[in-house]
Amino acid sequence: MSTRVLVAYATKSGCDSSCAIDIATEIASVPELEVDIQPLSGVGSIGPYSAVYVGWWYPSTAGDRELRRFLTANASLLPSRSIWLVHGHPGCGHDARRGDLKLTRLVVTPSETTPAAAGAA
Hints:
The protein is of the alpha/beta class. The protein is 27% helix and 22% strand.
């Protein structure tokens, strides 16, 4: 059985969607992980996901607003999920420095982590 991971992004120009695809591709290279990509504004519940990676370009009023809505809507589920929050990821979006993609630091780890999710961290 695979572990589901959500890669969500906020964007005004569409650049962050290409970055999200790069990130999702990297995460999907871990065996037993199934990755979905969605704009942050379209994410309702994170119920089906064991881990969530959220990115937006900084500074972005729209991204900040979408992030606050997302966090508020999913507040009760966040403690039981692995969560990455990223803004202005180097090499993505408007950043001209392209190179090897490196996942950022995990900011929230649930008390019980599945083996597949632990391999992604």
